[in-house]
Automatic annotation (TrEMBL):
Protein known as: Succinate dehydrogenase / fumarate reductase membrane anchor subunit
MF (Gene Ontology): metal ion binding
Compositionally biased tracts (Polar residues): 12-22
Residue stretches in coiled coil: none
Species annotation: Glaciibacter psychrotolerans
Regions crossing the membrane: 32-55, 75-93, 114-134
Amino acid sequence: MSNTIEAPRSPYTRTPRSSGTRGVNWEKWGWIYMRVSGVVLVVLIFGHLFVNLMVGTGVSALDFAFVGGKWSDPFWKVWDVTMLWLALIHGGNGMRTIVNDYASARLTRGIFKGAILAAVVVLIVLGTLVVFTFDPCPAGSPADLLPSFCPAS
């Protein structure tokens, strides 16, 4: 009885490297990134959920003031931005792998991967800006529009 391994589903093949050329094996590093970032994300996400839902009065305390107070501490800003970056890059890398597996035309793969890259970059930039420019008490705002924890202007 002979066992054969079927060809992979991926509809394209790469030309093999010549034995003299060396380059970065992006697939290997992408695979390693997925494993490492997954473990780190589990810690970050469960820490985030524990602090937001279990500490203090629980889910009833989640409001604008809670976020404002949390983001006044640089530790939580770095925690949340790290979680944002790792999650978006992890998800983008997973989507890239799916595109490589299922998109058959080279142009289609390029368009999809370009769109994924653009979405990840835009979301990382916007999310990072939100976290680091967040000000719950902007100067010059009418007092009736400010949260109760803001000092009177």
